[in-house]
Specification:
The protein is of the alpha+beta class and 180 residues long. The protein contains 7 helices and 4 strands.
């Protein structure tokens, strides 16, 4: 937009407020609300360029299509706008999580606990029968050696049995490490 200047000579392509409003099919009051800055002033009359009016309307449409974004700290927690922002953000986060879940990139912690507990239970069953299998394959092993193997397998079995209880702690540890 051009800056307002004071002139003593009126240019032929300038239109005063009533001429500009009439050419746009508006009332003078409506044209005033548009807030177009005059190109020049001669006495008490303000003059406008059609290009300035068009630019004003284009800028207005751009603002309508691309409203200015407000940051969270500009919103008042007591206002409905803030609550709408929170709701919209929560909905967007929930949809993003659903998409990640549908793509198999994330799984619920309850499912992970269930799956790991099942695998651990099967592993414990294998470990329980391992000492007997070793005894049959290697009869030369002493009772002391077999008992030592049994103790180590019991430690592993106990660890696997507790896996379901350890998953929530693993999740918290993972989150702490990845968010730092």
């Amino acid at each position: 937009m051009s800056a307002t200047k004071t002139n003593s000579k009126i240019e032929p392509f300038w239109l005063n407020k009533s001429q500009m409003a009439a050419s746009a099919g508006l009332t003078v009051q409506c044209f005033d609300r548009w807030g177009v800055e005059p190109t020049a002033r001669v006495g008490r009359s303000a003059y406008f360029l059609v290009s300035d009016v068009i630019q004003n309307r284009l800028n207005r449409e751009i603002e309508k299509q691309h409203p200015k974004k407000m940051s969270l700290d500009q919103l008042d927690p007591q206002q409905v706008t803030y609550e709408k922002y929170r709701l919209t953000k929560a909905q967007a986060d929930a949809q993003e999580l659903k998409n990640e879940l549908a793509q198999g990139h994330v799984v619920p912690t309850d499912f992970a606990t269930f799956a790991l507990t099942r695998v651990a239970a099967e592993a414990v069953g294998i470990l329980d029968g391992l000492v007997i299998s070793i005894k049959h394959k290697y009869p030369e092993l002493t009772v002391l050696q077999l008992e030592s193997i049994r103790r180590e397998l019991a430690k592993a079995s106990n660890l696997l049995a507790a896996l379901g209880d350890m998953v929530p702690n693993f999740v918290e540890e993972y989150i702490a490490e990845t968010t730092e």
